[in-house]
């Protein structure tokens, strides 16, 4: 069985390493449809503050079928599955709606996830449209005024760390075992680290794996330094 950590491997091979219901929760964001993997950049190629938004086109982009979901449900006790409305798979009724506060754009106003924790619908509002990002979890509908505090976009379907922090605050406890089969930008693993979760993550695309692993390592090193400074100054 694999140890906790982040792996550059096919999630279907990775999940075979684990026994039934090993993970307390799986939070996954698999490819919904073909298109984003062919995108060379998001929005403007160069942002208003000079940030270049060039992505690596990916050949490792497989829309999951029933066998993926069957395996996911086998290894996890609970699941949050983004893009559930795109898949030809029966999900129970629980839903989470992420209102991206996009306004008048060509992109989706919301994204929908299946959530096994309840049968009702929960709403999270957090602005996420290029340079327009939410101020905080509590004020997600208000634009962050200082663009230098924005998350850097490195993946065409990247989700914000704040979204995962909101999820983990509501649906997890410290020490729980988390699975993410399609890590992408590592937003989920950054939030998992901060929430004290034990995680296993998979990313098949080597380019995005290396980028996101670097992002995760930089964040965990920064958090460790912050903890050290806090302890030594008390």
What is the terminal separation in angstroms? 41 Å
Query: Number of helical runs?
Result: 5
Kindly report the average pLDDT value: 88
Unreliable residue stretches: none
Could you say which overall geometry the principal axes of the C-alpha atoms support? globular
| Secondary structural class | alpha/beta
Relative strand content: 15-25%
- Count all strands and give the number: 12
Description:
The protein is of the alpha/beta class and 234 residues long. It has one domain (5-232): Vaccinia Virus protein VP39 (Rossmann fold). The chain is built from five helices and twelve strands. The protein has helices spanning 11-15, 66-75, 161-171, 187-195, 206-232; strands at 5-7, 25-28, 41-46, 52-54, 79-82, 95-99, 110-115, 121-125, 128-129, 132-133, 177-180, 198-202. A hairpin with a 5-residue loop joins strand 3 and strand 4 (52-54). Helix 3 (161-171) crosses helix 4 (187-195) and helix 4 (187-195) runs parallel beside helix 5 (206-232). The longest helix has 27 residues, at 206-232. The radius of gyration is 17 Å and the shape is globular. The termini are far apart.
What are the main properties of this structure?
single chain, 234 residues, alpha/beta, Rossmann fold, 8-stranded mixed β-sheet, two-stranded antiparallel ribbon, 5 helices, 12 strands
